[in-house]
Amino acid sequence: MQRTYDGTTYESDYDAGLTHYYDVGEGEFALHDLENVGDATMIFCAVELKRESANQPLPL
User: Fold this and answer.
1) Domain coordinates of the chain in residue numbers?
2) Residues 4 and 35 sit within 8 Å (Cβ to Cβ)
3) What is the pTM of this model?
């Protein structure tokens, strides 16, 4: 289950090796709030392409 910034939730099916590319525009953001509601183990890896980003990295 994915939760969005406004509280909306939706469910998706994922297959091993599936990749997505999201273009996040200037002043926009991406929220990663996932919950595994299925029976299989899931592992996600998010990669941010800093050189191509319209936004400055957030401080750690």
Assistant:
1) 1-53
2) no
3) 0.58
**Residue 43's closest CA among 20, 17, 22, 21?**
17
Cα distance between residue 24 and residue 47, in whole Å:
13
**For 1-38, what is each residue's pLDDT tens digit?**
998 888 899 998 888 888 888 888 888 888 878 899 99
Angle, alpha carbons 1-55-23 (nearest 5°): 50
Pick 13 or 57 by higher pLDDT: 13
| DSSP code string of the chain | -EE-TTS-EE-----TT--------TT------B---SSS---------GGG-SSPPPP-
pLDDT of residue 9: 94
